[in-house]
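User: tokens in, sequence out, please.
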């Protein structure tokens, strides 16, 4: 039996939550306000966690979302979160040519006047003078050795300076899942480090479009 991946566990959770919300909406007495729906999903998540309905791979996510739902109420927008996960992850999981998709995204960034650098070794702290332009850097060793025949063979780190939601939308357009940005892990000043994994198999929640 094939072990369930994080991506599969996350999509299973998201689809189950959306199905529960849809079933609730069919009830004639159900309040259909954002606050009521968010409260419902928060309670559904708490019960799911208590009953261990889903893989332990998503237990930390559930704990985090439950805390957000209880502290933020409707502002947590848990139904919207599940919908975004379902949409973005299902598309990304169908993408079997991650390397080719990454190259297509890099080509589109060049056309949009981003500063794209893939021919420089990134092995220590660096500073890039980009004159305010959006920029993306991949170490030449990773760019040349981690991609073959359109496939991503090993993880790649992208160092990016841009509005994070702009990057999230670009990645989604090309069916790519990027890790959450990490400024502390970045070797390039004013950039965040993002990870791209073979087969889009992120070990934790990916960067999502809001």
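Assistant: Sequence out:
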């Amino acid at each position: 039996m094939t072990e369930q991946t994080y991506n599969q566990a996350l999509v299973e959770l998201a689809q189950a939550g959306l199905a529960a919300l849809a079933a609730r909406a069919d009830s004639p007495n159900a309040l259909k306000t954002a606050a009521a729906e968010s409260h419902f999903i928060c309670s559904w998540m708490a019960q799911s966690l208590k009953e261990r309905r889903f893989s332990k791979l998503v237990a930390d996510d559930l704990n985090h979302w439950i805390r957000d739902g209880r502290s933020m109420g409707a502002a947590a927008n848990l139904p919207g979160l599940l919908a975004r996960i379902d949409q973005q992850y299902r598309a990304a999981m169908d993408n079997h040519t991650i390397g080719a998709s990454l190259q297509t995204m890099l080509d589109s960034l060049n056309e949009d006047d981003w500063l794209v650098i893939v021919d420089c070794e990134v092995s220590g702290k660096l500073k890039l003078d980009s004159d305010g332009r959006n920029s993306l850097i991949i170490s030449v060793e990773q760019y040349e050795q981690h991609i073959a025949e359109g496939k991503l063979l090993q993880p790649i780190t992208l160092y990016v300076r841009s509005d994070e939601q702009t990057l999230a939308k670009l990645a989604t357009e090309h069916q790519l899942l990027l890790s959450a940005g990490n400024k502390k892990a970045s070797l390039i000043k004013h950039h965040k480090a993002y990870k791209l994994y073979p087969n889009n198999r992120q070990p934790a929640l990916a960067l999502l479009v809001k």
